[in-house]
């Protein structure tokens, strides 16, 4: 099978990593068992652009068990785990990815994935889908649909649809409650904090942590850093989210003010240059900057280079920038999503990705069985509830059921005071 990975001899180590993740993903195991029996995806090629690590591998093997032919590439130049990519290639999956790709290699691997002329696309960040539209228009008529994993990608795809550029139906897996509540809040919150601590060997307790953005991802980061004893400040442009942060007890201010006292800055906005040159000039010596959004545009790295007299990689995944007055600022993982791009970053816990990838798998099944119109679709509510129910069962949690009388009451409009 065609593949292009860093070292195929890493496959045995990667397989052990995949086996460990598989032990902690019972919801996907339930789905995989049914897919294996039904072989719903036989004759179907699925192209994916995802962070290639152990939990992603469990998901891809689930689709393969259902009969799918797979063409796989990474969704970030630094997030591919080479031993996992090797293990997938060794299992007959077409993999084109390695850690440390340059921009040209990254898009060439996307091109190779699309050369397999997939029937469906599964994306994280929308690079695969947007590239198919802009560079591979000849295969668009064959693509029946796609799904998107993350907030940034959904924003891009909604913008495409708004401008009449989207030509295939998309399911926004990111927008379902089970994904936003658990993956974005609990998964990103925990994995981001874990990555910052692992890369820097720094404590969170007692630090001034500045969380830029208070969407589901920012909420999770603020919650976890607060729980570790940090003094948390939230930066927001949305008045409702800012008020919510204030009501939860977080300090809320603007970036100009927070720049003066922050020890650790974590961006989670999905937007452009939310920390810029005017902010770097106010930061204290030794401040740490990192990003938990999809693209490395939230911290203005070009602006930081411009005002720096020198820069160096002081430790693995820590780049130090020296300013004219001698202050030093530190950027983690090249400003890319810190919970996956760092060499020591492990991504979300398997228990969290169990739910997200089960949503992806069942959304793909929904697209295979239904001819959807071209637009960005929500995940059907029954899929969301099914995944939540399977997760509860895996956790041995029983919930209450409505009685017949209660269901009749909910449907009645006549009963009043």
UniProtKB/TrEMBL annotation:
The name under which this protein is listed is Adenosylhomocysteinase
SUPFAM superfamilies, per database record: Formate/glycerate dehydrogenase catalytic domain-like, NAD(P)-binding Rossmann-fold domains
Q: Which HAMAP family match?
A: AdoHcyase (MF_00563)
Specify the S-adenosyl-L-homocysteine hydrolase NAD binding domain's residue ranges: 184-345
Q: What are the UniProt keywords, alphabetically?
A: Coiled coil, Cytoplasm, Hydrolase, NAD, One-carbon metabolism
UniProt keyword annotation of NAD present: yes
SMART domains linked: AdoHcyase, AdoHcyase_NAD
User: Which reactions are catalysed by this chain?
Assistant: S-adenosyl-L-homocysteine + H2O = L-homocysteine + adenosine
């Amino acid at each position: 099978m065609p593949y292009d990975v860093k070292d195929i001899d890493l496959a045995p180590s990667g397989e052990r990593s995949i086996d460990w993740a598989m032990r902690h993903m019972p919801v996907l195991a339930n789905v995989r068992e049914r897919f294996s029996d039904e072989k719903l995806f036989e004759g179907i090629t699925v192209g994916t652009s995802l962070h290639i690590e152990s939990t992603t591998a469990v998901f891809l093997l689930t689709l393969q068990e259902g009969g799918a032919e797979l063409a796989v590439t990474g969704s970030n130049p630094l997030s591919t785990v080479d031993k996992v990519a090797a293990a997938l290639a060794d299992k007959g999956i077409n993999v084109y990815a390695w850690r440390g790709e340059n921009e040209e290699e990254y898009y060439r691997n996307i091109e190779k994935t699309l050369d397999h002329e997939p029937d469906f696309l599964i994306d994280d960040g929308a690079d695969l889908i947007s590239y198919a539209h802009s560079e591979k228009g000849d295969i668009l008529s064959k693509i029946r649909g796609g799904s998107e994993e993350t907030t940034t990608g959904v924003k891009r795809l909604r913008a495409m649809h708004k401008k009449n550029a989207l030509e295939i139906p998309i399911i926004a897996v990111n927008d379902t409650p089970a994904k936003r509540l658990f993956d974005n809040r609990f998964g990103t919150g925990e994995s981001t904090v874990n990555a910052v601590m692992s890369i820097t060997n720094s404590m969170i307790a007692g630090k001034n942590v500045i969380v830029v953005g208070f969407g589901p991802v920012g909420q999770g980061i603020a919650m976890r850093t607060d729980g570790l004893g940090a003094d948390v400040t939230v930066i927001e442009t949305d008045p409702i989210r800012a008020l919510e942060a204030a009501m939860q007890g977080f300090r809320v201010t603007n970036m100009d003010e927070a720049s003066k006292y922050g020890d650790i800055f974590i961006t989670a906005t999905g937007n452009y240059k939310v920390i810029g040159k005017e902010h770097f000039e106010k930061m204290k010596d030794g401040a740490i900057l990192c990003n938990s959004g999809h693209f490395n545009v939230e911290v203005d790295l070009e602006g930081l280079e411009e005002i720096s007299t020198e820069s160096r990689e002081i430790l693995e995944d820590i780049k130090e920038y020296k300013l004219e007055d001698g202050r030093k600022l530190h950027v983690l993982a090249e400003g890319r999503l810190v919970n996956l791009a760092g060499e020591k970053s492990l991504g979300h816990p398997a228990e969290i990705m169990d739910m997200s990838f089960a949503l992806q798998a069942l959304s793909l099944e929904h697209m295979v069985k239904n001819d959807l119109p071209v637009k960005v679709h929500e995940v059907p509510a029954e899929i969301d509830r099914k995944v939540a129910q399977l997760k509860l069962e895996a956790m041995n949690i029983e919930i209450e059921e409505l009685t017949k009388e209660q269901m009749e009451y909910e449907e009645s409009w006549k009963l009043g005071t």
